[in-house]
Amino acid sequence: MRGGSPSWRSTASVTGRRWAGSGRRSPSGCRADELARARAVDHVEWPSRERFRRALARVGCAPGALSEAAVDLSRAHMALIAAATVLPPAHAELLAALRPRYRLGLVSNFDDTGTAYGILVRHGIARWFDTVVISEGLGLRKPHPAVARAGLRGLGLAAGETLLVGDTYGEDVAGARAAGLDAAWIDARGQGVPEGAAPPRYVLRALPELAALL
């Protein structure tokens, strides 16, 4: 792996959610399509609590109750997500085998940093990573190259020394390529590289297959 950075979904099956809405302007002055553009085009990560706050504002929540209600909803939502995460035994075994030989980092598109760290601790794997980059804390999300670059800084490695492993072509492979890293894409459904797109260096069907490449 030469200091590789497995994507969050490869280890815990969690990802951020996309904003959906009618595009009407909210009382806060921001339209739903502007939020969607910020994520999809500009790769800006909005914290979960902020997206709940804007959603509540759109439906007329009283300004005095808005911020607290948004935090409460976000916490409840994140608690459900955290409780639903699963770490497959084969993934844990792979991380344990790689840890003595490689520097490991995690770069994740996730909109609540505290919950992300909590999930790592809950599954007992937080200690295995030399660096953890969560998009909500950075303010940008993959495929923006800043996410992978932050991971490289945390690992103390150059792009040419690192392999990014992930299961989304448009976020993980594109993000790795934008930052100058090689990528191993987990094509779990066997759908193949999108038409017209360049293949990554490696294509896997499951994360444990990575062991044979190293």
Question: What is shown here, in short?
Answer:
The chain is of the alpha/beta class and 214 residues long.
Explain what this protein looks like in three dimensions.
The chain is of the alpha/beta class. The chain folds into 2 domains: 5-15 and 86-213, Rossmann fold (3-Layer(aba) Sandwich), CATH 3.40.50.1000; 32-83, no CATH class. The protein is 43% helix and 10% strand. It contains 9 helices and 6 strands. It has helices at 8-12, 32-40, 48-58, 63-84, 89-98, 113-122, 135-138, 145-155, 169-178; strands at residues 5-6, 105-108, 131-134, 163-166, 182-186, 202-204. The strands form 2 sheets. Strands 1-4-5-6 form a 4-stranded parallel beta sheet. A two-stranded parallel sheet has the order 2-3. Helix 6 (113-122) links the parallel strand 2 and strand 3 (131-134). Helix 3 (48-58) crosses helix 4 (63-84) and helix 4 runs parallel beside helix 6 (113-122). The termini are close together.
Beta-strand residue fraction: 5-15%
The CATH H-level superfamily of the largest domain is HAD superfamily/HAD-like
Query: Within the CATH hierarchy, at the fold level, what is the topology of the largest domain?
Result: Rossmann fold
Low-confidence stretches: 1-29
Query: Per the principal axes of the C-alpha atoms, what is the gross shape?
Result: globular
Q: Output the structural class.
A: alpha/beta
The CATH architecture of the largest domain can be given as: 3-Layer(aba) Sandwich
- Helix % is 40-55%
Q: How many strands in all?
A: 6
Major β-sheet strand ordering: 1-4-5-6
How many structural domains in the coordinates?
2
Radius of gyration: 18 Å
Mean pLDDT: 86
**Secondary-structure element series:** EHHHHHEHEHHEHEE
Distance between the termini: 6 Å
The number of helical elements comes to 9
